[in-house]
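Inputs:
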Amino acid sequence: MIEMPSLVDQYCHGVLRTELGLGTFEAHLARTEGPPAAGTTLFDTQTGFAVRRWCPPLLGLEPHCPPARYLARRRELGVLEAGRRLLRGSGITTYLVDTGLPGDLTGPAEMAATGAAEAHEIVRLELLAEQVADTSGTVESFLGNLAESVHGAAAHAVAFTSVAGVRHGLALAPEPPGPGEVRGAAGRWLAGRRVGGALSDPVLLRHLLWSAVASGRPLQLHAGLGEPGLRIDRTDPVLLTDFVRATAGLGTDLVLLHGYPYHRHAAHLAGVFPHVHADLGAVFLRTGARAADVLAEVLELAPFGKLLFSSGAHGLPELHVVGACLFREALSRLLGDWVTGGAWSPADARRVAEMIAAGNARRIYGLK
Amino acid sequence: MIEMPSLVDQYCHGVLRTELGLGTFEAHLARTEGPPAAGTTLFDTQTGFAVRRWCPPLLGLEPHCPPARYLARRRELGVLEAGRRLLRGSGITTYLVDTGLPGDLTGPAEMAATGAAEAHEIVRLELLAEQVADTSGTVESFLGNLAESVHGAAAHAVAFTSVAGVRHGLALAPEPPGPGEVRGAAGRWLAGRRVGGALSDPVLLRHLLWSAVASGRPLQLHAGLGEPGLRIDRTDPVLLTDFVRATAGLGTDLVLLHGYPYHRHAAHLAGVFPHVHADLGAVFLRTGARAADVLAEVLELAPFGKLLFSSGAHGLPELHVVGACLFREALSRLLGDWVTGGAWSPADARRVAEMIAAGNARRIYGLK
Amino acid sequence: MIEMPSLVDQYCHGVLRTELGLGTFEAHLARTEGPPAAGTTLFDTQTGFAVRRWCPPLLGLEPHCPPARYLARRRELGVLEAGRRLLRGSGITTYLVDTGLPGDLTGPAEMAATGAAEAHEIVRLELLAEQVADTSGTVESFLGNLAESVHGAAAHAVAFTSVAGVRHGLALAPEPPGPGEVRGAAGRWLAGRRVGGALSDPVLLRHLLWSAVASGRPLQLHAGLGEPGLRIDRTDPVLLTDFVRATAGLGTDLVLLHGYPYHRHAAHLAGVFPHVHADLGAVFLRTGARAADVLAEVLELAPFGKLLFSSGAHGLPELHVVGACLFREALSRLLGDWVTGGAWSPADARRVAEMIAAGNARRIYGLK
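Outputs:
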């Protein structure tokens, strides 16, 4: 058995502050376009089964108890107390929180307090630009305010994140757009935009990416599964190859989020380029009983110093729990098997476990 | 051990009525372009080994006996009696039969009689259009007769199937073609066509897909491995994403056939869209000793209420047997492991096994 | 336990003749763009762990000893003696050596002497063309000399290899270019070229491929992982489908090298086309403890008579050792499991092991 250290969750969101009924809870188990098909439920997924395995014991129930029983107990404790028990039972001691999703979600400070942990903010570039656009009257003021906002965010945030792949696809031109190009795109976007309008213009998305790269903060790029997007093959991380090559040697780290089902491609890029790292986010939450097998696929090509645990959780503290528990179990089982078979030494296995669980993230994000 | 219920084979073809020699039998073990390479045989494949494992005992022989010995016994019994023993030994109690392939194959009624089972017809859209074209003199009569034929088929068939991916690739424009566009394409196709000529025009393929969607019957789309086609990446089910989105909410179910080696993509679509389901056809027949592992990959993202067993068998009743036996063994082993490890509860495992084996198909196709 | 026969390494390079320090040794463990990231080492990869597992015992050390200890012992023995112990401990009895990489590498004769084995040369088409260009004054003499060189190489080499996928991508027009097209491309290339300049013109790459096909010698095509290239998806072997189809029936065998992470696609092509074979090179060297699992994925679709072992090693004899040891262990474990579970017979497992280890290569390359 490989002992697992405490975890740095290097990419997650906050949790909902409101009490949840069965339907609302179920809706947060997966990212779908539309409600579950008649005759089916989102509880009948690897995510649903994993929640039912790991979470009931933290609230004093039997594993695999029926969803309705679990939700009743959750309401009995209240959303705050349930959240406290769950987050504190997860084994996560540092949360990096992407604050860029809408909804009544806890921020980093509240995550830290509820989870008795540390927490830092990840700033989502597209939201930042949309917020700046909401309050800027002209193209010049938009671009000036945006530069200032990115600069300001870099001072307090631990990282930037971008959903360019979900908004447009990752097949973006790799070089930074020229100033005239950016001004033109900003003008067209602002002219056609209502307050709150989403940014999907490829020139402005590239401008954001390069602004973040210039800041020196690590840049997390959504790839593979993540938020529902246009078409999953447009978020294959291999499409980032030329952008990755263009940003090599500039001193800014890139982190490929999620990756799955293109996780072998993300691992390949982490193996070839010194500044590229691969996140394990979607693996655990989405694949449940299969977590060890999918993790093993990432561990083929990715150097062990370039892999980062995250829960990828959003909305339900249950998802932070499931991400953390499945990670610990999967990594422990996998490395344990390799040690037993003689492929790895016990000391190496312990060392690699610590690197993926926390050490690599501490190094890249400069955490204590 | 998870007990397995009787199976609904939701996609297969009939079996050959003629006695087979070693060479003809071998040719049905794989779909190749050309005969086996000198010095090799198609028996030396996962399919060949699986046939030799599962079928000889049903004809009173030892597992893994040499192919020539097996074929001799098969001829000794006669094609009818051998077929009866094989199909009745498969554990399949309902066959959905695609009648759209050429050759002297048994239809649904004969499959039912031979296998002591139920059977229903699946109508292949492209063949339907080709048959209508063979007997229609003008564009107007072709389109009118086609509409009538689709309408008629919807009344007696259990589903439609399309090989648009094999004929043209799945990267089809997602919206229905306009009436003028369809008339133009039909005119060009009929003018250049000889009797029996195959349909590969993308406008007419889309017209067929949308005619089937309008009928309300489930529509099965070939993806990934299936029939030999142009190029396998052109049948990646992810290419259907926009078509899937365009057909959402219309009340017609889509079933992605085969999928492999893009089965994780098919599972992803089944997870995101309520009306999409994933078939397991090619998994068992093609990957043999690897069936449990490939099945496990599909079980990562696909909701358990959206997965359907099929054999995908064609020509040889041995392939129905292999599909069914490998499915039962693989699912039983996989779910058994998850129960043993505590990831799933025994009750959930039994319930999911029944859903994939038969329940989901009964719900989607309205079977008793 | 399946006993393993001696191995034919059907694709590798020579080993370095110079003594190596820790840094130079480490640099040969992976193919990266840039040095390892600060705080990481290329020893912390599956390749690094596999070298530390398999090689120290051949030099009289404990498995998994620290890299510095291993390198010290290696220098103590001297590069020649260390190379002799390693290669002779690998179990490889025939090496097919691609001589087309730069550096002070041993050629086939030296590999044979050092390893107490047989060795044959594989000629790299692009290097051949570049060497001819270096010494040809005109387009006519270049094309004439090239034809003569290919003809000459076919007489002594065991195979040709091409890195067209790395230089341009595998999405090449499938048919041979016309003579005028070739002359035009050669003229443009020679005019713009300095001595030693690399060939990446798609017309000339296609001309080389078709020259090799015409020679009748097996043609090895780099696909998937291999040398660092433009973008990995441009080396997906599925992109070769039309070229494969165009070369069917001409009597020349094609071998898809590496394949991973598109190894299932390579296996698919080997299953569909009689003249296509799949190499296992990158699997073992790159994925280490995962070798059996990745090998298993190739064994889904590839006919057992179409799979070829190779180490894919370059520069370090340690990599020949790792490739061979991981192959033997992985295949033995995998087939052993299938025999234990009843899926394969012991006799079939032994037969298939021998085919993949050596027999298929002997047949295809006409080795004794």
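Remarks. Chain A has a mean pLDDT of 96. The longest strand of chain A covers residues 92-98.
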